Amino acid sequence: MHFTIISGSHRSWSQSSKVANYLANNLPLGVEHNIIDLANNPLPLWNDHMWDSSSTEYQETSHIRHPMKEILTKTDALIIIAPERAGMVPAWLKNFFLYCSSQQLANKPALAIGVSAGINGAYPIAELKVSSNKNAQFFYIPQHVILRNIKDILNNSDNIQEREQKTIERVHYSLAMLKEYALAMIEVRKSWVSDIENFPYGM
Length: 203
Fold this sequence. Notes:
By secondary structure, this protein is α/β, with parallel strands linked by helices.
């Protein structure tokens, strides 16, 4: 079983990276992982030349895209960490989804995690679930997590308050549910009815 954790922040040493590392250290038993940190692996702004393998843009980005493609192809589930930027998903994370395809991600479950420095963080969850998976055909499980006041939590402190403990419990519950969805969807992807070649898009 393999999970891919996507840290969607533009900033190096971000709170999203902290969350990604926390999740990586607290995955369910038997789950391996990769972390794709978009702050350290920025993809060029997507344009329609990325569909043309003979284009200069396609060739010049292959060293970034190909390792990510290999990771996404082998993964069984996604964890998508979306910090809130002016009430929205960060531009680099939106750009990342334009590079994803159904050949890599169709019929794979994803857990959405919103991150906020304050008491917000709900809008990125809503935005992710509206459109980010349309072409790549992965799906979001019903559970999601919003990590509010992120600077004050998940710091490996011995002094954990009740509110943080409840958040940690939800994180672990959601990760466990993600694993169960991932196990179930392996059989769906093997099914004769799964036909990504003739139906490559979600609509």
